[in-house]
Amino acid sequence: MANVRNLKKDINYVLGDIIEAVYLYELTSTGKPTEETNKLIDEAIAAFDVLIEKVNAKNVENKKAHFKQINIELEQAANQLIAKINDL
């Protein structure tokens, strides 16, 4: 991990792309938001908030391991959300 700024950008881009995929699904299928798609967007926003809060934590002993764990959590959250989008 190069630095904290890049980790924050990664979080923003990955979860932003997932939200964009939900919007594209809405446009191509129903043309309007559904309850399921709104839940997916809310989950992506909640994951973003949690991950950014962890990045901004100041009381971390081993920063390298901490940021590596955040990166793993981002990947897991993204995979779960993508699986849910594919199930729509």
What features would you highlight for this structure?
elongated, mainly alpha, 3 helices, 88 residues
Distance between the termini: 34 Å
Given helix and strand content, the structural type is mainly alpha
Report the helical percentage: over 70%
**Total DSSP helices:** 3
- What best-fitting shape do the alpha-carbon axes yield? elongated
If you compute it from the alpha carbons, what radius of gyration comes out, rounded to the nearest whole angstrom?
A: 15 Å
Relative strand content: under 5%
Give a count of the beta strands, DSSP E runs of length 2 or more.
0
- Helix-strand pattern, N to C? HHH
**Biggest sheet statistics:** none
Task: Look at the structure and give the mean pLDDT.
Answer: 92
Q: Runs with pLDDT <50, length 5+?
A: none
Short description:
The protein has 88 residues and is mainly alpha-helical. It contains three helices and no strands. The longest helix has 26 residues.
